[in-house]
Design goal:
The chain is mainly α. The chain has helices spanning 78-84, 87-91, 94-105, 130-144, 148-161, 167-178, 182-195, 201-213, 217-230, 235-247, 251-265, 269-281, 285-298, 303-315, 319-332, 337-349, 353-366, 371-384, 387-400, 405-417, 421-434, 439-455, 458-471, 476-488, 492-505, 515-522, 528-534, 541-564, 570-578, 585-612; strands at 47-49, 69-71, 117-119, 122-124. It contains 30 helices and four strands. Pfam families: TPR_16.
């Protein structure tokens, strides 16, 4: 180690025994690297300060102790550099210079760059990751209670603290879509895709669903494709893309996408359910039943699969099997509004009015904010009870959701049947004012056209039929109603032209059975049971149909025996699972309807107070 002089002087190579009395004070090195064999290879930057017992008083010299002190290196100022000359520079090695250059490049500690931030002079730590899950759950509850502003603010805070997590973007997009703020939702999805570097399939899927709802089918396909690229095991992307292709009439493409979903993601109840519906549409009912069974095996608590299977049996008029499947559906999800509604409509169509009324009332009491159950119950009461009771239920349903078009349409139809034409027209106009470009609007225009036709306003009826077909040109009922109008007026040629126009413009999708070979090319090899059932190895459609006919007698009893022997008691089930007493459903319904009216009055008072304030 070197002993560097503490003040500038000329370096001497010989040791001095006494100090000179001159004005310049010199210190000599105790040893040098060349003379000491055990000296380090690289010189150190530490300085050894010698002991000075008596020193002339000077402001530039500090007071030292009697021992050698080890000090950390100090950066010399400009004055020292100018006076020292080239002596120190020569003794600096290449390593010292490289370390100095490296030290200059390294950032110094700055409080602003630390993980903690200062707000008002107080250091704030970033929140823990577990707070994200709690915030997302709270935002979900706020959204469910229609407190969109609070939910949006909370989700924006989540994005600020956790920008790399995709869940806040998905939740915020849904909140904005519920408020019909489409452009803002699209911007949120785009920002989320960029923040996650395009690796979050959920964001791509939600964005694709948004574009599909807006009618941008081509853009939706691109986004679904991006979702499958981001994560090929994301079953929601494959299923959503397949549903899009189904709506566009591309059955072959839809089946291929569903097959890829099974290949990459394994068994999924939604994929099996959609495949089963395709088979039912193609009149391959045995294959459809098998796929429904696979769906319920994947998730026995999938209410949607049980309901879809029940509707298949309804179409085949297998009432006993359908009823058993409805029981399975409500057991899988006791509060599911669709299960109670479809089951109630099924019983009403079979003439079991009391059972249908009970099911619809149970569904309403479990889901008091659903307008569809009240709408169906109002129609049932109008047909088998009084119009006044039906009006009360229609009014309460419209108060629950004023933007639900089918409620206004059904209410208008009832008033038309009662002879209140002006009221019916007002209700139809109310339905169209909500949205004049939906399928519900097309049905409303068609019903309004029939009303005008019955009262003799033929020109108005024609305009309404034409407007309905501009929205939905595939409506067979509207085309034939218009043709019947012309035929009743003696315009048989015009009526024939209208029928020809329908057959010329209708979209007819040809569905063949050859898709099964292409599907099995991409299905997972483990699904040998499907191959065995559909007999794909033989490649013979006739043999497949014969297998289906041979097993038809086995499958349907299996469906019935699996449920009929369970001894399902609706009253006991409702009392245990839903805490409802079926003996006084009427009183509970009256209380529920009164609560709805009281809630509407309170909302009016609250809105009036906000406007005055």
């Amino acid at each position: 180690m070197l002993l560097f002089p503490s003040s500038t002087s000329s370096t001497s190579t010989t040791a001095t025994t006494s100090s000179t009395a001159t004005t310049t004070t010199t210190t000599t090195p105790l040893f040098s690297p060349g003379r000491h064999l055990n000296s380090p290879k690289y010189p150190s930057k530490l300085r050894l300060i010698p002991t000075i017992k008596s020193l002339q008083s000077s402001a530039s010299h500090p007071t030292y102790t009697d021992d050698y002190l080890v000090r950390r290196p100090v950066i010399p100022d400009d004055s020292d550099e100018s006076s020292s000359g080239d002596g120190d520079e020569e003794e600096k090695s290449a390593l010292d210079r490289s370390l100095e250059n490296l030290a200059k490049k390294l950032p110094m500690f700055e409080p602003g760059k630390s993980e903690t931030t200062e707000q008002g002079g107080i250091k704030v730590e970033p929140p823990l990751k577990v707070n994200l899950d709690l915030a997302l759950y709270r935002a979900k509850i706020l959204t469910r209670n229609f407190q969109f502003a609070q939910a949006q603010q909370l989700l924006q805070q989540c994005i600020y603290y956790w920008p790399e997590d995709g869940r806040p973007y998905v939740a915020l997009g849904k909140v904005l879509r519920k408020q019909s703020r489409v452009s803002e939702a699209r911007a949120v999805y785009e920002k989320g895709a960029q923040a996650t570097q395009g690796e979050n399939a959920f964001i791509w899927q939600c964005w694709a669903v948004l574009e599909n709802e807006l009618g941008n089918v081509r853009r939706a396909r691109e986004l679904f494709d991006a979702a499958t690229v981001a994560d090929k095991r994301h079953i929601g992307a494959w299923h959503g893309w397949a549903v899009l292709e189904l709506k566009q009439g591309n059955l072959q493409k839809a089946r291929n996408l569903l097959g890829k979903g099974i290949k990459y993601c394994g068994g999924n109840e939604y994929v099996y359910q959609t495949l089963a519906l395709l088979e039912a549409k193609a009149n391959r009912y045995e294959q459809a039943r098998y796929l429904f069974r696979q769906a319920t095996k994947c998730n026995p608590r999938s209410c949607a699969s049980w309901l879809a299977w029940a509707q298949l049996e309804m179409q085949q008029e297998n009432n006993r099997a359908a009823r058993c499947l409805f029981e399975k559906a409500v057991q899988a999800s006791p509060k599911n509004r669709f299960a109670w509604h479809v089951w109630g409509v099924f019983e009403a169509n079979r003439g079991r009015v009391d059972k249908a009324r009970k099911l619809l009332k149970i569904g309403h009491l479990v889901n008091p904010r659903d307008p569809v159950l009240l709408q169906s119950l109002a129609l049932l009461e109008y047909k088998h009870s009084t119009a006044n009771l039906s009006r009360v239920m229609f009014r309460r349903a419209s108060e629950l959701d004023p933007r639900h078009q089918p409620v206004w349409i059904a209410w208008g139809w009832m008033e038309w049947k009662e002879g209140n034409l002006s009221t019916a027209r007002e209700l139809y106009q109310k339905a169209l004012s909500i949205d004049a470009a939906t399928e519900s609007a097309a049905r409303c225009l068609q019903a309004w056209g029939v009303l005008e036709q019955r009262v003799g306003n033929l020109s108005a009826a024609r305009r309404l039929f034409r407007s309905s077909l501009n929205i939905n040109s595939q409506s067979y009922v509207t085309w034939m109603t218009w043709a019947k109008l012309e035929e009743d007026q003696g315009n048989s040629v015009r009526a024939e032209e209208i029928r020809d126009l329908y057959f010329q413009q209708r979209t007819e999708v040809a569905d063949d059975a050859s898709w099964v070979m292409g599907l099995m090319d991409i299905l997972d090899p483990a699904l040998d049971s499907i191959k065995k059932l559909l007999n794909f190895e033989q490649g013979s459609l006739k043999k497949t149909e014969s297998v289906a006919e041979a097993k038809d007698e086995e499958v349907l009893p299996e469906v019935e025996d699996a449920t009929s022997g369970s001894g399902f008691d609706l009253d006991v089930f409702v009392k245990e699972k839903l805490s409802l007493d079926t003996t006084n459903l009427d009183d509970q319904m009256e209380t529920s309807l009164t609560t709805i009216a009281r809630t509407k009055d309170q909302r009016k008072v609250y809105n009036r107070s906000r406007q005055t304030s």
